[in-house]
Amino acid sequence: MSGKPIDARMTAAAKGEVVVFLVGMRVNNMLTPWSWLPTFAAMVRMLKELGRDAESGLLGHQLLTGSPRIYYVVQYWESKEKLLAYAADQDKAHRPAWAAFNRRARGARGRVGIWHETYLVPEGRYESLYQGMPPFGLGAAHGTEPVGRRGDRAADRLKV
């Protein structure tokens, strides 16, 4: 995470539906790096490819770890259509990486696991607060604005 912390109460300036994609891997056997290192490298390669293509639809991401064995990426997308188009595009890094993972998985006997979750969040069903933080997460993907523009309390920003 880079950038200068903003010493004010800020919220994400997202409008409309928010598309959140979580994708990750779990190393089930640390002693077999040949079974999991290619999966991690493919994740990094895809993020670099998406970062070079302003039209890809990826608005922002954070690479995180849940433990020394769990790595995942929180991604914010412009639309579900662009996310699905990237996943299906034969000319992009995802399709060959997916095929290679499946080939390796047959012989890996569970040494590495992968997962993903996709969330389509309707407008008014998300809220955020950042204070003393550089742009982060949804705020980094969609920009930020002062909290007062959307409501001072989380309940005000959630239109439920």
Per DSSP, the total helix count is: 5
Count of beta strands? 6
How is the main sheet built? Answer: 4 strands, antiparallel
| Strand order in the sheet with the most strands | 3-4-2-5
Q: What sort of overall outline do the alpha carbons produce when their principal axes are compared?
A: elongated
Mean pLDDT: 91
Low-confidence stretches: none
Backbone CA Rg: 18 Å
Helix content: 25-40%
Strand content: 25-35%
Structural class: alpha+beta
Distance between the termini: 31 Å
* Element pattern in H and E: EEHEEHHEHEH
Features:
alpha+beta, 160 residues, two-stranded antiparallel ribbon, 5 helices, elongated, 4-stranded antiparallel sheet
Describe this structure in words.
The chain is α+β, with helices and mostly antiparallel strands. It is 34% helix and 28% strand. The protein is built from five helices and six strands, in the order ββαββααβαβα. The strands form two sheets. It has a four-stranded antiparallel β-sheet with strand order 3-4-2-5. It has a two-stranded antiparallel sheet with strand order 1-6. A hairpin with a 2-residue loop joins strand 3 (58-67) and strand 4 (70-77). Helix 1 (33-52) runs antiparallel to helix 3. The longest helix is centred in the first third of the chain and has 20 residues, at 33-52. The chain is elongated and about 55 Å long. It starts with 9 loop residues before the first strand and ends with a helix. The model has no long low-confidence stretch (mean pLDDT 91).
